[in-house]
Amino acid sequence: xxxxxxxxxxxxxxxxxxxARIDSRRAATRMGGGPVGAPTTVxxxxxxxxxxxxxxRAVTPRRETAIRVLAGLLVVAVSLATAACGAGGSTRDHAxxxxxxxxxxxxxxxxxxxxxxxxxxxxxxxxxxxxIPRKPRRIVSLTLGTDEILLGLGQRxxxxxxxxxxANPTMSFVATAAKGIPAVxxxxxxxxxxxxxxxxxxxxxxxxxxxxLTDAHIPVVELTTFSSxxxxxxxxxxxxxxxxxxxxAARMVAAMQREVASVKRAVAGLPRPRxxxxxxxxxxxxxxxxxxxxxxAGGTNAAAAAxxxxxxxxxxxxxxxxxxxxxxxxxxxxKQDTAQGAAARQIQHNPALKKVLAVRQHxxxxxxxxxxxxxxxxxxxxxQDVASVLHPKHVKPYVP
Length: 400
Fold this sequence. Notes:
The protein has 400 residues and is of the alpha/beta class. The protein has helices spanning 13-23, 38-55, 61-86, 144-152, 175-178, 188-193, 207-215, 229-242, 246-267, 289-296, 302-305, 316-322, 342-348, 357-360, 369-372, 379-390, and strands spanning 90-92, 99-101, 120-123, 129-132, 139-141, 159-163, 183-184, 198-202, 220-223, 274-279, 282-284, 300-301, 311-313, 326-330, 364-367. The chain folds into three domains: 1-88, no CATH class; 131-224, Nitrogenase molybdenum iron protein domain (Rossmann fold, 3-Layer(aba) Sandwich); 271-390, 3-Layer(aba) Sandwich (Rossmann fold), CATH 3.40.50. The protein has 16 helices and 15 strands. The strands form four sheets. Strands 10, 11, 12, 13, 14 and 15 form a six-stranded mixed beta sheet that branches. Strands 7-6-5-8-9 form a five-stranded parallel beta sheet, sandwiched between helices. It has a two-stranded antiparallel ribbon with strand order 1-2. Helix 10 packs across helix 16.
């Protein structure tokens, strides 16, 4: 989700670096899009960064982090400088449906991360151009992921509406913080009544609801990609930029990366057991958040290795064929359980699965519902918790 530069911006080195500091993230080069001419220049930068990586005797986690930060800074800086030279004209404002002149803006002087300048123009994950005229004061979140991110960024006072899942401790990591904030059940009229100046939605939000909100001239930012830690980091960075909390967002992403890197170091070189996540008759293949959690936690996603992509309805015979060494599942009631939890017991005592290695070795584990469906900063906790199941002698469960 690129933050677009204002029109006729003078291509100064200082401005490009200032914005790059704000928008650089691990997923900076995966955001897609960009002005004509940028891809070729960016490709040269990426090639040079790859050359830097190849020239090092050993790429330690610290060096790899430094290389990624440098790559993000250079790529975003080059893209913005290119856009600055060719920006201009007008675009259709997604929030109002009218043709609006692009807003002017500039860099903010000062040390550290610069504040957001409004009006802010961006293209969201759904491809809509959104213009946010001023710093949002009344925000509504229509996704649990953005509930958790916004509350984690300390924005409770600006939230006037969250999902009805936010205060549910079996589904949400921020249940305590969300108490007292009006719960929105998806009704456009309910959202409009809250008088928001910004709404965060997702691709599963009803199109009719989004249309009614935009018809009411309320800026709506849609987030559509929830398949990896990189996606989550990108969302956090963009949300932080939109609400003028880029420093807090950068610290949140850095904390996630430190936690995941710590787990990866702990499990490096250990045998990687074959693992599946199976719940409600569905198995998680490649391109799923829980699939990446398994990999980062020191396991091999057996479903992904077998070519399964996304969430696929799977019968018991397929599980027998995969023969995983560990089965992760989710309790139907969403409660945090141990290896003896209800969902695990159903698998453990299923006669059709008695020959599966995980069943024979009693390595069937329940995860909380909130852990397996998480698409926020708490994915880092999930990595540690799953690693503690796969490698209990080397990793302890996460303790907040």
